[in-house]
Amino acid sequence: MFSIAVIVFREVLEISLILGVLLAATRGLPNRAPWVWLGLLLGMAGAGMVAFFADAISQAAEGMGQEMMNATILFIAAILIGWTIVWMNRNARELTQHFKKIGVDVIKGIKPKYTLTIVVALSVLREGSEVVMFIYSALVTGGKTYLLITGSLLGTCMGMMAGVVIYYGLMKIPIKKVLIVTSWLLMLLVAGMVAQAFGYLSAVGKIPDLIPVVWDTSRIISDGSLLGKIMHILVGYTDRPSGIQLLVYFLTIGVLWVAVKTVGQPTNLKKNILLMVIGLIGLFGLSHPAFAEKHVYSPIIEQGEIEFETTGTYDLDHSKEKNAVQEYKNAIGYGVTERWATELYGEFERQPQQNGDGTTHLSSVKFTHLEWENRYQLTEQGQYWLDAGIYFAYEIPMKEKDPGKIEGKILLEKSTQQFTHTANIIFNKEVGGGTTQETDAGFAWSSRYRLSKYFQPGFEYWIDFGEINKHRAFNEQHHQIGPAFYGFLMPHVKYDIGYLFGMSKAAPAGELKWILEYELRF
Amino acid sequence: MEKQKRMRLVVYLILGTCFWGTALSWATAQEPYTIVIKNHQFNPPQLIIPVGQKIRITVDNQDASVEEFESFDLNREKVVSGNKKIFVFIGPLTKGTYKYFGDFHQNTAQGVIITQ
Predict the structure, then answer these.
(1) Mean pLDDT of chain A
(2) How confident is the model at residue A53, as a pLDDT?
(3) CB distance A382–B87 less than 8 Å?
(4) What ipTM score was computed for the predicted complex, to two decimals?
(5) Would you call A304 an interface residue with chain B, using a CB distance cutoff of 8 Å?
(6) Which among B75, B79, B89 has the least Cβ separation from residue A304?
(7) CA distances, A336 to each of A296, A301, A376, B79 (Å)
(8) Whole domain around residue A397: which residue ranges?
(9) Chain B residues touching A380 at Cβ < 8 A
(10) Which of A150, A155, A268, A520 has the smallest number of CB atoms closer than 10 Å to its CB?
């Protein structure tokens, strides 16, 4: 009897925890009780039905029916709760602006109430169906009925009691903090749900794992244990997460946080974009220090590839104006077709600034630009003597008064059996108020020896001619040359790292540059 | 002035045609070879092509699922959708054995191109 009680207790506990968090988050919502009860009833009925059709469901969708159903339920619940979080915060903001009051009034904004019903129903459905199926199978395998009933009742009661305890614990939080605490609890709950959904999808091979098992803490806190279940609900813990699960977990938190910050703000487009970018891209940036990104682009596109990129440059020079100047960018890119790839960048900079007394100091790290890049492959790789492509980018400044920039490049590449040579012919022009409206020209060259997939040594040569019209002396142009190394650190992680020596006076004496890319395929 | 401009235009046109004409004829002067993808396997598993020539290979994916023709030896990585054909240009290559694989089904999709 006790073993039955324990199993039932664990499942009921999960339901109670979700309910507890949801109820604490919606406290003060008038007349919510009938909606919650409706959700419970629907969920239980649904659970019964699921158990009844269990066989048919698991056979459906090529034997992946159960996992697909679980994943779908989780996604729907995640979206609904996510939307609720955004709503809660938006109303809080509006109300504090108008009434300078927070608390009970905030929650009144959640409508329609049937959202609550659906979420409760879905959660009960998911967990409940497991309980029902377990009890059913125990009955069928000849378990003693009375033991089964008492065990289930005991488990259910204990589960509900634990849930109630958690609920009152959450209720003790002062009203002022309620919004933040419950928002975070719900965000983590949603992130955990999404990660779990992806776990189901990768179990049936619908999506890649990336890394099969990132860590294994099943000996410390296993998924099946009580603590494990509690942590699963509260923060989305799982004892053997895959790479994709961790990725979507943090991505979900990022998306939710950004949504909360941007929805309902007085519309300042740039600020919204800024926050969106910080939330999404900033997550992937391992923000460590190192401008003009030194990436020699290949014209070859890889269709269907999603890419996360972090790149930077760090300058070394005797002069204070040029030393420690650093720029780094984080980006997400996607190969849309065989011939077109697009990428979105967030740029961060530290630049020298004038002090009052004529000396300079280095500014703090600033988010300076948003950049949208597109690359088009013009020829089939290897068909002609050269592979050709074009590149087009538009840079949006984050500071109102700064100018934007458009950039165009001709991308050329020649690959022989052992070497790859790439050239970029670069044009850019500032746009917007207060700029010189002149076009600058530049050139970049890369050669490398394709020794192995993991290590390809080579060199790069970078030139910035300056304005096309003016003919500048060599020393006023930027000329940099140096060794570079390319390859894969590990499957799916590409690197491009080099050190450029300044050949002309205008260029920094030394520049370290790096590009790290993580590739995904869908 | 008019005449000079016209002369220049004509010269550019001729040069342009020569360039593209050469490029195109170079491109089309290869013999077609075909690799079929079926049941996540490449057929023929060993393809023999002449040494030192640019070759156009047709990769015919007869599976419903997408595959990727990938090879470090040949420096190619190209996606081929289900029930579609793509062209891959390789060469000129020296005498040797060049491995390639299907990135999405690496267990079974392995092949070799041999130049002779």
Answers:
(1) 79
(2) 75
(3) no
(4) 0.73
(5) yes
(6) B79
(7) 21, 9, 10, 12
(8) 298-521
(9) 87, 89
(10) A268
